Amino acid sequence: GLFDAVPILMVLLVPALTMRLWAEERKQGTMEILVTLPARDHELVLGKFLASWALLATGLGLTVVLPITVSSLGPLDWGPVIGGYTGALMLGAAYLAVGQFVSATTENQILAFILALVLCMALYGLGTEGFAGLFPDRTGAVLRALGTGSRFQSIARGVIDLRDLLYYASLTAFFLALSVGALRAK
User: Fold this and answer.
1) What is the Cα–Cα distance from 161 to 46, expressed in whole angstroms?
2) 0.85 exceeded by the pTM?
3) Average of per-residue pLDDT across 26-36
4) Angle between helices 41-61 and 162-185 (to 10 degrees)
5) Which end of the chain is more exposed for a tag (fewer CB within 10 A), N or C?
6) Please, is 22 exposed, middle or buried when counting C-beta atoms within 10 Å of its C-beta (0-12, 13-18, 19+)?
7) What's the rounded Cα separation, in Å, for the pair 65 and 74?
8) Which of 117, 94, 108, 82 is nearest to 11 (CA)?
């Protein structure tokens, strides 16, 4: 039950982590300093992404006490626990990349938060049964395959499928590439 609320918490938490990544750089005028450093745009994007992912991983790491406590009280199936943490890290990476892209496109951090929240919620809601169930079988299956929430549920059950991991890695790489493009455009 620990991972049931993780997708919704990520939708709310990650935009708050990413809203200032680039928007505040522009607002404070420190963007010029960053751009003149001897680092390429993709290195700056990757650095900010890895820093925010490390912060997210640290927060998730603090919850490891819960399954350890439960396992001391009785037998615990560690497959869903490992799958849940893996899924949370992958889902968080994808949402961090989305949030970084949105932050790179705007100067206002509140607007970056709201847009990232809407975009992450749309990616999550796309694959939920409540939305995908409204469409015919073939369309619903495509929506479930595109949604981040349905893939997280699969991993959180303890079934770590390479397709799900590749989906999250591709989504992360796509939005990080968009972030690099947005920085170069500005």
Assistant:
1) 26
2) yes
3) 79
4) 130
5) N
6) buried
7) 15
8) 117
